[in-house]
Amino acid sequence: MSTALHRELIAAFTARSRNHPYLAFTLNSLCNLDCVFCKPRCMPDYGHKDRPLTVSDYAAIAAEAGVWQIKKAHCSGGEPTLRADILDVIGGLADGLGPGAAIGMTSHGNLRRGLSVEKLSGVGLTYLNLSLHSLDPARSAEIMGGGDPRITMHTLETALALGLRVKINCVLQRTYLDDAFAVAELARSLPVAVRLIELQNIGPAQALFDAEFISEAEVRARLHEWFANAGEVRRDELGVRSPGQYLRPDGWAGSIGFISNSSCATCSDANRIKITPTGVARPCILHNRDIPLKPHLADGTLDDAFAHLFQAMLDRNANGAWQGYHYVDYDLRWDRMERPEGAPVLPLLPLLATDTPGPSVCARASTEER
């Protein structure tokens, strides 16, 4: 690939006012919990029988990404901390992207024996997204199939003490709505960003959706007193690069945002390069421009792969399959889900007929930052 093309593709993101891409790695599909809306062990390829990327692979991908001025990598799963080599993976990403990079991870926070937030921070982790759906141990276990929110809270407090940015992911369900509000209220006294996430009518959540879905609009109405005098928090202050809005209620230490992929999904400035455990890079879920990275790792041609990814992301603006809808991570977690060429992976969802936020709410909804 020519140096001129490299410069041209990087410059195009600024010229088109698009956020620069970042890397979103799914490190595994394994999880030692079993959330009701996820149920990973129900998936036919649970455990990834294919050979996953190695520590040296992650380091090489990050090093090439650094050449492309990418300064952020996020790791999720499954539960990424179940990887025995997670410290080496985080360290390789941090070294590859270089000084000042943001290296993050999504976890349920019940870290396995021998792993600690201190160790993760020591190798380069700069922020942590914690899945927390109830503060009550019994109700949390109903939702997550195990784990202990008190341990998650200890992980959260340790991360804050170490200077890591912390975000909390909480999925909204009608049965557990008061639990979600209690989680959101953690932002009253803690400098965290709580993201209230709409249930999506996909995968295992399809069995729950009709009874449990509650829209952002309805939740905003119930929390109107919190938001009445709330101020907007700058995304760069939170380490967030997506177009969503985060609000800080008057006098609170933290903020609340929404991820509303069911009622008003939009990927107008989606900027993740998604990479599966076995190294398939996906610049867009609905635009089938996937590219396997393992051959490029073997041939030393990662620069060509990144040129493809950058061009594919720019091409999303004219993607006929896009139409403003976005399915977060569904086909990313499950590495061998069939991806027919030239056709959307999933049927496009119409906006819900009821409880649909108005344009002002939808325009602010965050769909990319996880």
From TrEMBL:
GO terms of molecular function: 4 iron, 4 sulfur cluster binding; cyclic pyranopterin monophosphate synthase activity; GTP 3',8'-cyclase activity; GTP binding; metal ion binding
Alphabetized UniProt keyword annotations: 4Fe-4S, GTP-binding, Iron, Iron-sulfur, Metal-binding, Molybdenum cofactor biosynthesis, Nucleotide-binding, S-adenosyl-L-methionine
Domain of life: Bacteria
Cofactor(s) required for function per UniProt: [4Fe-4S] cluster
GO biological process: Mo-molybdopterin cofactor biosynthetic process
One family name in Pfam for this protein: Radical_SAM
Gene3D superfamilies, per the entry: Aldolase class I
Domain Radical SAM core: 15-236
InterPro entries in alphabetical order: Aldolase_TIM (IPR013785), MoaA_NifB_PqqE_Fe-S-bd_CS (IPR000385), MoaA_twitch (IPR010505), MoCo_biosynth_MoaA/MoaC (IPR050105), rSAM (IPR007197), rSAM_sf (IPR058240)
The protein's name: Radical SAM protein
Organism, as annotated: Streptomyces alkaliterrae
Lineage of source species: Bacteria, Bacillati, Actinomycetota, Actinomycetes, Kitasatosporales
